[in-house]
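Duplicate of #3305? Posting structure anyway:
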């Protein structure tokens, strides 16, 4: 979802009207809009099969902008899923057809604005033939089903997507390129949209997703959980977590401290016995708000599963493997994933190659938490430790990670040291003003490394060309 200008809104309204859809815009508006944009003279061509990501050119698609994903999933205890996806989008060119990213699954039905359309599947691309004038709203509806299968990521050497744990729990790990392995999508962070989820599970199961739990409807044999993510979200941050006996547990202490709803989805044995650091969520939000500005969403919490060794910052509901939560360093991973809600989720990368903007910033938040708990001297000691580790590991430049090893150590550790160096160079006032300005200016959107550098130079009044050239792009870690 991109910000739409007043003119864009007018054209959208007019196009909906002329197509005879539910919009009841007066004809006079349509007449004005047609005068402004004679779309009939522009040829109808297929939308591009990729959005222009330098590292992963097949991701995302051109020619339209998704506004909303409505996902209805019915999970059966045998592991199968039946799904209905309703995607509303706006054409950004005269389209003769367009692609969605989608792999796996059996498609039962596919319509655009209620009409069956011609489509073919080509690898990860779902190629749809349908004529849509520029500016027109349209709705794609897909019914599909099967047993979820992970897919091989192009960016990391493991299979990701919809995964299952040893207790039968189901969860999604989609960064960076696996959203389209569980729902048809414009799978790139530059096309954010709002989401609703309806998750039907066998009675006794919990089904969670991003945002707010808006309704729970129970029958004798099933329960349906309705979730709504009202803030724009990149497809890779959409999640579903399903578990037999899992519970959604409110954290009233953190909710009170942070002033927003904190809830966690926990397996039964952790409900009354969660790690102490989990109750620090509210305090962490306050510390990060001080550094980064207001928390960008209305909820936060984590979901804990077995069968996953890592953590992932799904929007408003980070996913944690149990081993992470039970590890002595859990609180640092906890503050790291929380920091991603600002840097990664609200401000997302425009190119995956800029992943240090996510990981360097979230890793830097670990240092801020240490400084909060133990003071400035402890911060400096931790910086020294991590500098040493980074030097020994001989990490390459953080701004140019290998495309097949996107999440290497450099984007985390050298990425964080870029911010440490910037803080030393421009001082605390300008440094934190830079972080807050950057978080605010690109909230609910996307940014590039150059965008961040521009904010830092503008806020500090310094020429930072040399600093960023050496810290971000230099082969050697600067002294
Ligand atoms: Zn991270």
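Output from current build:
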């Amino acid at each position: 979802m991109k910000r739409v200008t007043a003119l864009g809104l007018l054209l959208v309204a007019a196009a909906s009207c002329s197509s005879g859809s539910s919009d009841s815009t007066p004809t006079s508006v349509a007449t004005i809009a047609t005068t402004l944009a004679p779309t009939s003279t522009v040829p109808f061509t297929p939308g591009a099969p990729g959005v222009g990501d330098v590292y992963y050119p097949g991701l995302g698609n051109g020619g339209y902008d998704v506004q909303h994903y409505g996902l209805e999933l019915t999970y059966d205890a045998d592991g199968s899923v039946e799904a209905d996806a309703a995607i509303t989008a706006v054409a950004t060119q005269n389209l003769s057809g367009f692609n969605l990213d989608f792999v796996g699954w059996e498609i039962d039905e596919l319509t655009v604005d209620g009409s069956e359309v011609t489509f073919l599947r080509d690898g990860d691309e779902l190629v749809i033939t349908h004529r849509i004038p520029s500016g027109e709203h349209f709705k794609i509806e897909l019914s599909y089903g099967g047993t979820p299968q992970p897919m091989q990521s192009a960016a990391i050497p493991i299979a990701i997507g919809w995964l299952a744990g040893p207790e039968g729990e189901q969860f999604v790990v989609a960064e960076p390129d696996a959203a389209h392995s569980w729902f048809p999508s414009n799978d790139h962070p530059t096309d954010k949209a709002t989401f609703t989820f309806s998750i039907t599970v066998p009675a006794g199961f919990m089904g969670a997703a991003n945002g707010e739990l808006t309704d729970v409807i129970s029958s004798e044999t099933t329960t349906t959980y309705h979730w709504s993510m009202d803030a724009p979200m990149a497809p890779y941050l959409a999640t579903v977590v399903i578990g037999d006996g899992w519970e959604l547990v409110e954290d009233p202490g953190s909710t009170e401290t942070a002033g927003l709803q904190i809830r966690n989805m926990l397996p039964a044995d952790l409900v009354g016995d969660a790690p102490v650091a989990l109750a620090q969520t509210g305090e962490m939000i306050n510390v990060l708000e001080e550094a980064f500005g207001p928390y960008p969403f209305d909820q936060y919490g984590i979901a804990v599963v077995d069968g996953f060794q890592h953590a992932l910052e799904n929007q408003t509901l980070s996913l944690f493997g149990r081993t992470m939560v039970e590890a002595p360093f859990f609180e640092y991973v906890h503050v790291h994933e929380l920091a991603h809600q600002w840097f990664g989720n609200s401000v997302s990368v425009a190119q995956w190659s800029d992943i240090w903007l996510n990981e360097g910033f979230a890793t830097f938040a670990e240092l801020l938490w240490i400084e909060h708990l133990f003071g400035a001297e402890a911060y400096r000691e931790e910086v020294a430790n991590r500098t040493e580790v980074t030097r020994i590991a001989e990490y390459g430049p953080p701004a140019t990670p290998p495309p097949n090893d996107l999440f290497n150590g450099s984007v985390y550790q050298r990425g964080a040291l870029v911010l440490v160096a910037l803080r030393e160079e421009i001082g605390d006032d300008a440094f934190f003003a830079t972080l807050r300005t950057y978080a605010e200016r690109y909230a609910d959107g996307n940014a590039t490394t150059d965008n961040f550098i521009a904010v830092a130079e503008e806020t500090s009044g310094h020429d930072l060309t040399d600093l960023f050239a050496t810290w971000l792009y230099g082969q050697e870690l600067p002294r």
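Confirmed duplicate; merging threads. The CA atoms of residues 315 and 341 lie 6 Å apart. Residues 2-36 have pLDDT under 50 and may be disordered.
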